[in-house]
């Protein structure tokens, strides 16, 4: 028994799909990140003109891709939580604790440890445990994730400072750095790693039941619960997975600098969040995915690269950055998909 | 019930009265002057070396040393200082690294009222003048300009004073960052064949320095050196050079004097740094305050340039890096103003 209202609603939807069915519109809407690709194109165009083509030189493109790897991995991590409609600000704390752990457990000049390749599962375990705590605080203690993860970030950063005694730990194991700075077919290995991670998450989001449930929770948590989605379990596992990925990024960061300290992760939250927003992942949840995170990060990193290449005065860069970011988001967010602007 | 109440009151009185006896007992013997340092923490190596310097002077003079750490709280710093002044009955001198610059004002008032001599390092609002207080002997800071000059000069020398360089600044709003950059620009003026083709702000941060350097290297692959305003950024730049296979060919310089940069200097990947020796800072600060207390320095008659001044830090390059890494075995705490570099207005 359909009510008058619901029939009216159906008609409305039919009308809207007719409107957007023009050819350009069809193409535009068939690619989920077309808006972002256009804005990357605009950024590239402006910088190519500004740098006499240097911006699009292959060596610069590879530099941008190489530099985007670690922020991309972080963005891929944090956007998963944001799809759920939650927030994760524990990024810097988890990166700090895993970076310091990696510094102290790999061959270094402070302790006698040398765990070698075991460090990979170790940092993922530490990050994963921290993520699990985030998830438990959010679901079982029913704390807003915005504040509980902020608290976690401070706590873990403090612990990282304590165990590293506030100083940096130079590494003595050069193997990890060699991998980080190596190239495969001219492409930075670390970028390939980030893309592979993006691919895995893309498949998870689009082809598995877990992915469907994630979007259901992000769209409307109460409805999802009524439809039988195990909300708590999914939230906790996504927070855990996000923590594991942070751990991996912490290790990569340490490997790249060949040294470890709690503060090395201190400026990573902002770029990751900007990449999430620029990439078109809705901060209100349920919209966007791995593709958005990947393209969002590339836009943000390309932007910083272009500002340096064009020799924009450092005193002005921060302002330029802000203006361009606002314009990029204004251009790219799909206002039809985001119901409420918060 | 009544008995128990009385017992509790008696115990409480005992607890309250005991410290009074303890204090009185100590005062009976003419106690030596206490040397005290009020610093931030003992958990980072730079701050921890303040204690080493204070202990060194204490041993030399045969005086007790008390270390007060505020762990980032200006309130605690002030209260701890106040408590120690009361405990020693004013028979104490201080070397203070103020937690935040506005904190010097209550400290100066408090110590003036108690007649306790003290010396401060690093933090002071510019418009607060030491000579307006009778017991605040001196305020000292290391000279950012001369540090920037030394590292620039050494860097330019490494490539024969001809070629391009890039530079990494600290936080742009930070006065020490600006001073060091002024030092670099002074030396650039001296050598017209050296050209600074780009500079970026990397906020003292190693990760940002790495990224900015990678980007600048794309635009300027032919540079001969990288000047950085601190060691942390210099080390980030060094790893960026390593990523493009040019570590050791292009040298970096920093300021601070960290073990990591010393090792890079030894390996021939960094040219220079400037070591801010906190062991010396604590020792000389206490020595100046002690001289005022013992009447060897007449604070009212001291010239203004000894009351507020910039001190020269220890320049480090390949010639003395081994010696610096071993650590100085003794310091000259007799010559109170030996490190004077320029007056602070």
Please supply descriptive tags for the structure shown above:
A: mainly alpha, two-stranded antiparallel ribbon, 2% strand, B: 345 residues, alpha/beta, Rossmann fold, six-stranded mixed beta sheet, 13 strands, 47% helix, 19% strand
What does this structure look like?
The complex is a heterodimer of chains A (342) and B (345). Chain A has 342 residues and is mainly α. Chain A has one domain (53-332). Chain A has helices at residues 4-19, 23-30, 34-50, 58-83, 91-105, 119-139, 145-164, 175-181, 189-207, 209-219, 221-226, 231-257, 269-279, 290-309, 314-332, and strands at 169-170, 183-184, 187-188, 259-260. Chain B is an alpha/beta fold and 345 residues long. Chain B folds into 2 domains: 32-143 and 277-313 and 339-343, Response regulator (Rossmann fold, 3-Layer(aba) Sandwich); 145-275, 3-Layer(aba) Sandwich (Rossmann fold), CATH 3.40.50. In chain B, 47% of the residues lie in helices and 19% in strands. Chain B has helices at residues 2-28, 45-61, 74-87, 104-114, 144-158, 175-190, 206-219, 231-243, 259-267, 278-293, 304-307, 321-326, and strands at 34-39, 65-69, 92-96, 118-121, 136-142, 163-169, 194-201, 225-228, 251-253, 270-275, 308-311, 314-317, 340-343. In chain B, the strands form 2 sheets. Chain B has a 7-stranded mixed β-sheet, sandwiched between helices. A 6-stranded mixed β-sheet of chain B has the order 7-6-8-9-10-12, sandwiched between helices. In chain B, strand 8 (225-228), helix 8 and strand 9 (251-253) form a beta-alpha-beta unit. Chain B is elongated and about 85 Å long. The interface between A and B is large, with 38 and 34 residues.
């Amino acid at each position: 028994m359909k009510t008058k209202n619901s029939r009216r609603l159906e008609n409305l939807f039919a009308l809207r799909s007719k409107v957007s069915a023009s050819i350009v519109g069809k193409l535009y809407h068939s690619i989920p990140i077309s808006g972002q690709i256009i804005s990357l194109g605009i950024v590239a165009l402006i910088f190519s003109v500004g740098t006499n083509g240097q911006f699009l030189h292959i060596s610069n493109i590879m530099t941008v891709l190489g530099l985007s790897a670690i922020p991309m991995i972080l963005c891929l991590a944090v956007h998963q939580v944001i799809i759920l409609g939650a927030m994760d600000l524990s990024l810097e704390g988890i990166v700090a604790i895993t970076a310091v752990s990696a510094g102290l457990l790999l061959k270094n000049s402070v302790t006698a440890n040398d765990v070698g390749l075991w460090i990979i599962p170790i940092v993922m375990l530490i990050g994963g445990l921290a993520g699990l705590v985030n998830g438990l605080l959010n679901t079982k203690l029913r704390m807003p994730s915005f504040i509980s993860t902020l608290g976690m970030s401070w706590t873990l950063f403090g612990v990282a400072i304590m165990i590293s005694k506030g100083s940096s730990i130079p590494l003595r194991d050069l193997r990890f750095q060699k991998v980080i700075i190596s190239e495969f077919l001219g492409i930075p290995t670390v970028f390939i790693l980030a893309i592979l991670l993006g691919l895995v998450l893309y498949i998870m989001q689009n082809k598995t039941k877990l992915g469907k449930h994630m979007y259901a929770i992000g769209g409307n948590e109460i409805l999802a619960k009524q439809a039988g989605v195990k909300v708590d379990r999914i939230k906790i596992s996504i927070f855990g997975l996000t923590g594991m990925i942070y751990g991996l990024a912490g290790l990569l960061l340490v490997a790249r600098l060949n040294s470890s300290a709690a503060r090395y992760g201190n400026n990573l939250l902002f770029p990751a969040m900007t990449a999430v927003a620029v990439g078109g992942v809705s901060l209100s949840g349920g919209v966007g995915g791995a593709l958005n995170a990947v393209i969002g990060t590339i836009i943000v990193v390309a932007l910083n690269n272009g500002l340096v290449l064009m020799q924009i005065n450092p005193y002005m860069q921060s302002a330029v950055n802000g203006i361009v970011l606002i314009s990029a988001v204004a251009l790219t967010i799909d206002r039809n998909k985001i119901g409420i602007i918060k | 019930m009544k008995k128990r109440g009385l017992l509790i009151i008696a115990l409480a009185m005992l607890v309250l009265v005991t410290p009074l006896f303890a204090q009185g007992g100590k005062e009976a013997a003419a106690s030596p002057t206490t040397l005290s340092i009020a610093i931030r923490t003992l958990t980072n190596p730079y701050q921890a070396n303040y204690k080493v310097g204070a202990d060194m002077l204490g041993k030399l003079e045969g005086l007790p040393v008390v270390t007060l750490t505020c762990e980032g709280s200006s309130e605690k710093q002030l209260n701890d200082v106040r408590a120690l002044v009361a405990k020693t009955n004013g028979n104490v001198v201080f070397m203070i690294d103020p937690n935040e610059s506005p904190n010097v004002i209550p400290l100066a008032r408090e110590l003036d009222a108690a007649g306790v001599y003290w010396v401060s390092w690093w933090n002071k609002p510019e418009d607060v003048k030491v000579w307006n207080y009778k017991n605040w002997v001196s305020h000292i800071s290391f000279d950012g300009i001369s540090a920037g000059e030394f590292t620039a000069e050494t860097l330019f020398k490494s490539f024969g004073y001809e070629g391009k360089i890039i530079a990494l600044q600290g936080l742009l709003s930070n006065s020490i960052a600006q001073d060091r950059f002024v030092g670099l620009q002074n030396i650039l003026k001296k050598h017209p064949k050296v050209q600074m083709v780009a500079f970026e702000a990397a906020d003292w941060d190693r990760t940002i320095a790495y990224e900015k350097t990678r980007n600048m290297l794309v635009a300027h692959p032919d540079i001969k050196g990288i000047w950085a305003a601190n060691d942390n950024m210099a080390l980030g730049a060094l790893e960026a050079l390593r990523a493009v296979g040019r570590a050791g060919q292009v040298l970096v310089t920093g300021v601070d004097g960290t073990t990591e940069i010393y090792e890079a200097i030894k390996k021939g990947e960094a040219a220079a740094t400037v070591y801010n020796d906190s062991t010396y800072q604590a020792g000389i600060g206490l020595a100046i305050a002690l001289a005022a207390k013992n009447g060897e320095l007449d604070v009212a008659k001291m010239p203004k340039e000894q009351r507020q001044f910039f001190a020269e830090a220890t320049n480090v390059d390949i010639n003395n890096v081994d010696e610096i890494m071993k650590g100085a075995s003794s310091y000259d705490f007799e010559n109170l103003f030996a490190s004077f570099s320029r007056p602070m207005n």
